[in-house]
């Protein structure tokens, strides 16, 4: 059972922030730091949090994308809110808006999980281990909760990253939010600090980086608002990276402009510590990680079908088993694979060290095209 406690950060004095100390010359032994105090005896639990969320129309729950415990906490919030009122939806940063029909078909039971990741281009566009979010998707499908693809497509933000919003043509401009709020100077400063920590910031354009962030935030807020305004009696849980939620700067304040109803900001406790202006509630979770999935140790050319082997990583089990460059993958562990998504989906059920059958197709000048089945040890 995951250890879970909730810290209420805005009211009732659960956090006592000390007065900031002015910088002054002092010996090292005299130096102090500004510190906050958490009253651990007053920490609430998930039941208490859910009761406080009962009247909030939108609950935004932040995450660090690769933290499994954060996603389990999100699921607890979703389950609790569903128990209060099943008339709700789940808004997702990690699916892009053009793939909404794929999510609808998944919830309707028309495609399975493998179809979901393939048709939404999940692994190509998001890349994080699907298993991190799997319990959330499975619960939504079981209960028929709509999943809403919030994010703008990468093709648009990629153009803005290179040339800014001004570089977009008329058609592309019509597909981005017309209202873009640039008034939050503190948010811009935080984003600039992040930008400076990227590799070779001198070779990139901060203004373009900033506009991409704003487009993500405004785009997700606008998409969520569109669904909420079309369903005036419904609630929504929004799942997104904590950076899009913290201080209300990213999605929340932009969503407030567009809808009626109260919002709540629920954040995971991060390395930056606690500031009472960050949000409304903080979740304290014990870190959990998923076991690593097995790998074939191959590089793939996914432009072709069947997928072609273009090379091997060091210590490749596939190469050791006799797989060759230009072989085409037909199946892995008895499952047909027609795309990169299929391969990733099949392998996530297998561990390093397992041996699986890999069926490949190989062209030979003398014998023509032949099919071979090889046993590969995953690594």
UniProtKB/TrEMBL annotation:
Keyword Signal recorded: yes
Record's keyword terms, sorted: Signal
Pfam families to which the protein is assigned, alphabetical: Cofac_haem_bdg (PF04187), PDZ_2 (PF13180)
InterPro entries attached to this UniProt entry: Cofac_haem-bd_dom, PDZ, PDZ_sf
Keyword Signal among UniProt keywords: yes
SMART domains, sorted: PDZ
UniProt signal peptide: 1-23
TM segment ranges: none
Residues annotated as domain PDZ: 283-364
Coiled-coil intervals: none
Official protein name in the record: PDZ domain-containing protein
